[in-house]
Fold this sequence. Notes:
Layout: H1 2-7, H2 21-38, E1 42-45, E2 51-53, H3 54-63, E3 71-73, H4 77-90, E4 94-96, E5 116-120, E6 128-132, H5 134-147, E7 155-158, H6 165-170, H7 172-178, E8 182-184, H8 190-197, E9 203-207, H9 209-217, E10 225-230, H10 237-247, E11 251-257, E12 261-265, E13 277-281, E14 286-289, E15 294-298, E16 305-306, E17 315-316, E18 319-329, E19 332-338, E20 343-345, E21 348-350, H11 352-363, E22 368-374, E23 382-391, H12 397-403, E24 415-419
Parallel strand pairs: 1-8, 3-4, 4-5, 7-8, 7-9, 9-10, 10-11, 23-24
Antiparallel strand pairs: 1-2, 5-6, 6-16, 11-12, 12-13, 13-19, 14-15, 15-18, 17-18, 18-19, 20-21, 22-23
Helix pairs in contact: 3-4, 5-7, 9-10
Amino acid sequence: xxxxxxxxxxxxxxxxxxxSPQGLQMFGERWxxxxxxxxxxxxxxxxxxxxxxxxxxxAEARALKPGxxxxxxxGDVPQILRLLLAGFLHGVPVQMxxxxxxxxxxxxxxxxxxxxxxxxVGGSGVRRCQFFTFDQIAADVDRLHAALDLGDRGVGVAAxxxxxxxxxxxxxxxxxxxxVPTCHAPQxxxxxxxxxxxxxxxxxxxxxxxxxxxxxxxxxxxxxxxLAISAGSPLTLGLERMALEKHGLKIHNLYxxxxxxxxxxxxxxxxxxxxxxxGILLPGVQARRDDAGRLVxxxxxxxxxxxxxxxxxxxxxxxxxxxxxxxxxxxRLCFEQSVGAGINVAGRKLSPAEIAxxxxxxxxxxxxxxxxxxxxxxxxxxxxxAELDLPQAEIDPAFKIRAxxxxxxxxxxxxxxxxP
Length: 420
């Protein structure tokens, strides 16, 4: 069977299994302790000002009985939080899916002990599923909790997608594993964000550089922010200095990957001197360069592997080779470039193959090639470029409208190149 050949990478039995009894017991004991100690306290603050307590969240999740071999965690923050907890409590793998995406059915059954499934493009540019055990999830959550002192930072504001690894680990998983309350900001724009934050004396705010730029240039007040974190794409020195000069706010740069969780962060209280500075390794994370200069990460939060590994990849058994070329500078990491095919648009990783296929279907044009190019807006990171086997004169507004009819707004090319 082709699926068996692809999945032999894991070295596990190829049949559906629930989360391991040991992992399930570990999570269950942690969660029961949180409910016993903080049952009447708020676990989730909703956009309308109401709050759901830990005891109420526990009851709602236990009432959700998974009907199949997985739980699909999709929707807004309250839905994701309930569904995650329901799957974890019942020992059923939870698959994270963004609101505007369809579920990718894994190409093979999840390996033994799988508790969480992410579907992501990542640096490779290929959308795949990634599998994680309870222990691997907890390792990433606890590593950030300790290094960033999240237990003493107040409420975590979920203004970015909780279906993404960064938003997931910094907010709702902190709630489920460490009892840190989450505040739901229904939209990442200035007014909804301020409405969400204003009820709390102290909050920590994760965001991507494009959002931080929007917040800093808008009317957002940051008086109650105890910690500002940026990830997803490089944080420029200009944006970091704007935050300090305009608001006295230090934005800490965090680096990681969905496959292995957080790797390093800028722990300094002042501005960096080099925009490539990715900070120091987080405790328990080891890193080195391979012969191609790519960063190889070894830690307890590295996942089990992909559903469809590509030739030459190394992912699993505690080790992950990234698509990023990194230069060590003493105890700090310095970003050089990404050598993967993935396109990074404002912190969102996109697949060139997926975009090209949608344009082919919509335009009925076979010759479509998609790649990323550096954007003039550094916070955007990259722009999408479409190269078409079509005379340039025929790439008019009507053609673009038709060609983009199947694309999400963030997948639309900014540059179109045809034949002379």
